[in-house]
Amino acid sequence: MAFSRYALLIPLFACLSFTGCSRSPKEQLAYQHAEEQYQINQRRAEHLGERAQDPEPARDESVGPTPVRQ
User: Fold this and answer.
1) Over the range 33-53, which residues count as b (16 or more CB within 10 Å of their CB) and which as e?
2) What are phi and psi of 51, to 5 degrees?
3) pLDDT tens-digit profile of 9-24?
4) Could you write out the DSSP letters of every residue in 17-70?
5) Measured distance CA(9)–CA(7) in Å, rounded
6) Does residue 32 contact residue 24 with C-beta atoms inside 8 Å?
7) Are residues 66 and 59 in contact, defined by beta-carbon separation less than 8 angstroms?
8) pLDDT per position as a tens digit, 25-56
């Protein structure tokens, strides 16, 4: 009796090892989102690193001086 239980587990483990475990659609979407966010963060970090090395920081011309109320 015990032999038959273990005999059924061997093909089951063999099947799982050949097919592997896959992610659910939600897990795939979350993984894809995390990968895209990682790429965005890498580009942003490179951009900020380049700006930190510039001798003169770029001035944002769209923002003018703050008017003083009297």
Assistant:
1) eeeeeeeeeeeeeeeeeeeee
2) -65, -35
3) 777 777 766 666 678 8
4) HHH-----HHHHHHHHHHHHHHHHHHHHHHHHHHHHHSSSPPP-TTS-PPPPP-
5) 6
6) no
7) no
8) 899 999 999 999 999 999 999 988 877 776 66
